[in-house]
Every structure is written in structure tokens, then in C-alpha cells.
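Entry type: protein chain
Record version: 2
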Amino acid sequence: MKKFKNFYFKSFDFDKKSLLASFHYSFDNEVFFEEKIDFNSDDFNLRKDINYDILDSILFNLHIALWISYYKAYPTHDLIVESWNLDDFQITFWKKFYINWLWEFLYKNNIDIKWLFNFINNSSTNYKKIDFEVSSKALVPVWWWKDSIVSIEMLKNEWFDFDLFVFWKIDNLKEDTSNISNKNILLVKRTISNNLFDLNKKGYFNWHVPITWLIAFTMEVVWYLYSYKYLVLSNEISANFWNTFWNWVNINHQYSKSLEFEKDFKLYVEKYISSNIKYFSLLRWLYEVKIAEYFTQNAKKYFSYFSSCNNNFKIFNKSENIEKWIKWCNNCPKCAFVFSILRPYLDKEEVIEIFWEDLFDRKDLEKLFRELLWITWIKPFECVWEAEEVIFSMNKSIKKYWNNLPYILEIFNREVLTKLTNEEIKNIEKKLGNRSDEDIIPKEIKKIIFKEKN
């Protein structure tokens, strides 16, 4: 396997007619990558006053964001930027994010961080911010998850004007969400360079990418081209918490969903893009267990059309047996976690409708549930949440089974619940039921959702 010395940010370009953006990268000017993002969406109206200097400045940020898909194949010390110049603040911003996001990658592959992220400017083009006006509409990124569905229903209940946004590709569940919510989807298509897959076949690193991060910077372009003001994400309080501790650092699998990143990104956008654009998570004030409660009480029409499983999500056959396999593998941390937090609010029939079985009966999932409860020492490296939320949910679920507890709840009752005092249980319930004071939801949105006065 050939070793590379440098990673190059080569260039980016934009076709004004097709609205196709291309982003170019390289290892040592020997292996080249071209990623394409198609911003053409026929059902939505482009702004009429497009300033291509503004657009170029926004595309530059996306150019710097998309590189991680290729760089992670073989992390190099030097990063040579040939498209535009990065100033000191930008370099600090990019370093902070990628170091925090890559900690899990470095931890699992035993890579020393000190050899990475030396940005070198090699361009005469300087960055310039130009303010622009936007409408009052919002975009809500939608995946398969219940969280984005909760955001959709909250906004619909308040008659807030918004569209749905999908990055990369459409699938059945996203189309179903659009149809049920009666909201249109603005789709931005992504094409990854085939050279990356060629490297992966040769043994170079393959790793997940921070999709929330890529959505954020892709949305900068959409904000401008289609004139939106709000990008409404659906990240909750629990995304702020770390998975494990290594080399004196807390490693958070969900760093790009955290409040820390959200604040940094907000500051970056205001400094380099526009102070008129608002990026925030509508659910930041809630723990996941409260989102689950809202979902079960207000979104039953979506029960057959959502998933949180990343393990076996394959598209598109809709026969009953295949659909079960598509939406829920019932063997991964995310399936087990989502089952746990939904179970207190569902009848047996509703559980079977969603998951096809009661996962608390599965003896082979004991190790996984122990990890979710933090009986073992490490929280799974997945988008799962706090042990207190699982404790809270399992404790409420016990009432569903009377004295005939399933296997997993027997373990929970014996090894966790009996060791907690009534006061400790009440403190958990109080903590998870409280609204967080630490959020950055714009005042005009808080006024609508929470009925707050000026």
C-alpha cells in the first residue's frame, strides 16, 4: 500500500445552467478525486438575484467540508489548500471540528493526532463576506428517524412555513414522510468519486463521515440559491455526551450533532456567510426519552414509515419480509436503544407493528443492553444516548409486563434497579423531564413553539 505525503484541496467549480458543483482533491497530485453535488431542484424557485461572488465564497466552505470523505482514507500531516486562502480563525475552526470528530477514528486505529492537520495556504484568492437577504421560510432535513418527524409535526402544529430537505439520495421512507406530512422535498444529489472506493479495495481506511456536518455546509449553498432563512435540525440534549475517554479526551461519536458544534457553526456562518441565516436544532431542549414520548403520542401515522437502524438499511423491496429486514435489523445498539425508549409508551401490538418482536425477550442481546445501561465500561459508538435514559425507560416498561418480566428486564431489575434508591430514581426522572436552558433556538421560533412572550 503506497504511503502519501500530502493532501491537496485542488479547486471547485459551478455550472450556472445545470447547477452542478464539482469539488476536486488529490493525494500527492497522483490520486485525484472529483465529488459532484447537484443543486438543481425543478420544483423549487431559484432566487433571481444570484451573485456568483457570494456563491463562490459559500462553495469554498463546502469544498473544505467535503474533503474528509477522501482524506480519511490515508490521513496525512500536511493539507495544502490551493482553491482559496484560509485565515487563522478558519483554520482553528476546521482543526477543532475534525480533531473532535476523528478522535473515534484515531482511537480505533491507534493513530497519533500530532501528525495531522497542518493547513498550508497555496492560493492568492482571499475570502470575502458579502451579506445577502433571505426569505422567512425554513428547511427541515429529513432522514428515516423519528426525531426529524417530531420536528416536522411540531412545526406543522404551529403552521410554520417550511419544506423538507434530503441530502444525497431519496428512498421510500423519506418519500413516505413527505407524503404523510404533505410537505415537499428539496433534494440535493451527491456523487462520490469512484477513486475513493478503489483505494478502499486496496486496504486504505474506510470510515463513516459526519453526515450532519456535511448537511450543514451543503445547506449553506441551498440557503442562498433558494432563499431560506432557517435550517431546522433535530438534535437533542443527549448528543452532547461522550462515549468513552481516551488520551485525556472525551470521545463523542455524535460530535457534529452536539451543542458545542452548533454554537461554533453558528459563529462561523455569521462571520463568513451571513448573519441573516439561522442554523439550530428544534429539539435541543429535550432528552431523547421525551422525544420518544412526543412521537408516540403525536405521530402514530408514521409508525410503519420510520427507522433508526444504520446496520441493515437496504432499499427498496416492500414485501413484508424484506421490509422488516430493511428498517430494523434488531441486532444493533440503535435498534435496541430506540426499542427501549419507545416501549413504555406502546402496547404489545404497536411494538410488534414496528419491530416485529419484543427485543426484551432476546437473550442473545444481553451484552448489547448491558452496554446501553453502561454496566460495561464503554458506551456503544453509535447515535445512542445516555444510560439514565435507558434506566428511565426500562423502569417505566416494567409496568407493561406485571410480574412476568422478559429476560432483559430481569437483568435490569436485578443488577440496576435494585441498586438505586427511590431518591435516585426521582432525580433521574426530574433531570430527563426538565427543559434545557442551554439552547440556541432563535427567539422568533421559541415564541411560536413555546408560546413565549417578548
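Comment: The chain has 17 helices and twelve strands.
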